Each structure stands twice: as structure tokens, then as C-alpha cells.
Amino acid sequence: MKKLLYLGFLLLFTLALAACGGSDEESNGIPVNADSSVSADSGEKKKLRISLGLNDQTPLYKSSVKFKELVEAKTDSLEVEVYHSGQIADDRSAIEMLQFGTLEITIPSTAPFTSFVPEYGVFDLPFTLTDTDIVDSVLQGPFGDKLAEKASSQGVLQLAWWENGFRQLTNSKKAVKSIDDLKGLKIRTMENEIHLGAWSAMGANPTPMAFTELFTAMQQKTVDGQENPYPTIFLEKYPEVQKYLTETNHIYSPFIFLISQKTWDGLSEEQREIVQAAALEAGEHNRDLSRETAASALEELKGLMEYNKIEGAELEAFKKSVQPVIEKYKSTIGEDFVNEYLEEIEKAQ
Fold it and tell me: How many domains does the chain have?
């Protein structure tokens, strides 16, 4: 009899523990076995976090908010959060997080992605893409689609081309109206072999340096100048330490809208269609906004700096000087692919 009472008590005690919830699922109220992904069929809201390197005043951030609005207007099953200024990670680390599935979306420039897919290095080749009509023809056509497909080899998908813009030259020493004016100028560049080689070929003294150190370096005359798109030159207040502005359009830099393959696989077909359409539409918005911002920034800069534009015969001299650099790095990027890229540009021209 005692044994029966004991077994009954043990059964009741076990049932009580189960009713309270076992320790396998949570500890101190914090899920310990929770999967960060939500299956497409679970009915739960899926969170898409976007990591951006630039601040919340840029066309990149504003266009990411546009993406959020487009997605959330189409479905209640997806929630988009936008994080700027590297709050989650820098561009390279964010790409790696996408590969592991610990981040959903990032929109970097192509430069850091060349470490993963060398073919994206075509955009580092100087004086190849020189105006927006050619850019749109190449990137929004078959070549752009072919290049975007290569991202899938790295566990990420590129859903759209967005825009960073054309890089321009500033310095504190003298007006640059021809390639001869570059001789001896100490120009800060990104830590990129092609960029360094190109500026050396043009006669300048390229100096790789972290972006965060640039303003102080110009202020203290550690470097004479730098190269960045117009909005960056204006928003970072470079006219305070730079006198001369030269429109060169020497490098065009796209942004690429990347989503984790693991995230994509966890979306329903309907959710994928919504995200893809929003990435493309927000990309169009981004290009328009980026170009409007660049134009307005240039007008502001013209009132603050001495402005010159490289064109005609002088532009051809710049292009000729960097041809050996393009030839040198063809093999690194892929010679056949670079030739195809240059042929597409020639068709567009």
C-alpha cells in the first residue's frame, strides 16, 4: 500500500513539473535553445536586420528605410530594422555574419566584397565607368545580372544594385587641371592595391589610411588631399581643410544589396517576392536620391572650393596613364571577365 502511495505521489510530482515548464526550454526566463531563424510556415513574424556602415544622413540609410516601408506595407509577417554607422558590424564582418546566418541583410560597397568574389574588383579599375548612363546600361543589363549571380557562391544572394557614386579629388596645395598637376601630391586612398597603383601611375603619392583618420590628417597636412564622392566631401566638411576640388569620376562605386542564403531559405515564396521587389524598388529610389544628393552637394562645394573638371583631351591622358594598372590586375580579377566588362562599357558608349 505504501508503495502504491509513493508511486502515485511521484507521478503527481512529475506532472506538476511538466505543467510548470521544463528546464530544457528556458533558464531564468531566457530561451536557451531558441533558433534565431523563423520558418516560413511557423506563422511568426520574421525579423530582417539591415547593417549599414554609413550614418543616418546618407542616401544609403534613407533608401534602407524606404525598403523597410515597402516590405512592411505588403506583409505583417516581416519586420525590418535598420542599423547605421556600423552599430552591428563593419562591412566585411557583416558579410561574414550573413554567411553564418547570424545577420539577415547588409548593403556594402563592392570594395570589401572583392575578398569574397574577386570579379567585383572590376569597379576598382579606374576611368572605366565614367557617367551614369553607362553605369545604368552595364549594371541593369545582362552583365550586371551575371556578376550578381556570383555572390551565391559565398552563401549570400545579391538582390539589387544600389549606388555609392563617383569618387572625386580634393587637395590643399593647388588646382588640378591636368595629369601633370598631380605630380608629388600626397593623396589618401583606401587600402586597395588597384587604387594605390592607379594613383602612382598618375604621378601622385598615394597614402593608404583609415577613413576615421582622414580629416585630422588633412588638417595637420599629413596628406595633401583625398578622393571621395561629393556627398561625403560635403557632409564630412572637407572644405574646412581643403581648397581645391577636381571632378575626375575616376572610380564608380556601387552598393550591393546582400541577403543571407540561410535567411532567404527561411522565407516563404510570397515573402521572397516581397523582399526582392522591395530591394529593386528601393534601389531605384536610392540611385535617384544618391544622384540628387551628389548634384546638390556639388553646388554647395562650388561655393566653398575652387572647382575644376577633367574632360576631353585631359581625361584621355588620365585614362592612358592607368592602362598598365588595368592590364596588371586583369589576372587577379579574371582576364576574360574584365574583357567582357570593358566590352559592355564600349557597347554602352
Answer: 1
How is residue 307 written as a grid cell? 572647382
Q: How far apart are CA 333 and CA 248, in angstroms?
A: 24
List pLDDT tens digits, range 301-330: 999 999 999 999 999 999 999 999 999 999
pTM comes to 0.80
Are the CB atoms for 55 and 22 separated by under 8 Å?
no
Band of residue 27 on the pLDDT scale cut at 50, 70, 90: very low
Read off the CATH number of the domain in which 138 is found: 3.40.190.170
* 2 part of a folded domain: no
